[in-house]
Amino acid sequence: MKSSIKSKGFSLIEILIALVILSISLLALAGLMVTTTKNNSFGAHMTEAATFAQDELENLRTSPWANVVTGNDTRLGFDNSTQYTRNWTVVPNAVAPNDTVKEIAITINWNDTTSHSVSFRSVIFRPF
To answer: Which distant-in-sequence residues (6+ apart) come within 8 Å of 120 by Cβ?
Structure first.
């Protein structure tokens, strides 16, 4: 009688090798998830900073012309843990006649794990 049995299934070594390959790929994906989470967090902070700058620019545009002056303040983010410092500088345009144009530079600073800063520049015209 022949004792040649065809093997069906996987050996223990093959299963261990497959598990090692799977573990390495899952570890790489875990590192990718950390990077993705950090980038999403930074994007949220950047969007919030841009919104705070836009809010102040709209506030300056609707203020009486004499009240459009340099200033600063602080704002709390959506999670109440990130504090944004907002500085704006208003400079009359020397080229424009009769103080009809003001240049505005708004800078937003915040600190999550590192310090970040974003700046915006705009021009507003005196209403007639």
So the answer is: 50, 53, 57, 105, 106, 107
For the record, the structure tokens of 63 come out as: 């203020």
Q: Tens-of-pLDDT digits for all 128 residues of the chain?
A: 455 566 677 889 999 999 999 999 999 999 899 889 889 989 999 999 999 999 999 999 999 999 999 999 999 998 888 999 999 999 998 787 788 999 999 999 999 889 999 999 999 998 77
Q: For residue 110, which of 94, 80, 86 has the smallest C-alpha distance? A: 86
| Tokens linked to 19 | 């598990």
For residues 36 and 25, give the distance between their C-alpha atoms in angstroms, rounded to a whole number.
16
On whether the CB atoms of residues 75 and 83 are closer than 8 A, the answer is: yes
Q: Which residues contact 110 (CB under 8 A, 6 or more apart)?
A: 45, 49, 77, 82, 83, 84, 85, 116, 117
- State how far the Cα of 82 lies from the Cα of 48, in Å rounded to an integer: 10
- Domain coordinates of the chain in residue numbers? 14-125
Predicted model pTM: 0.75
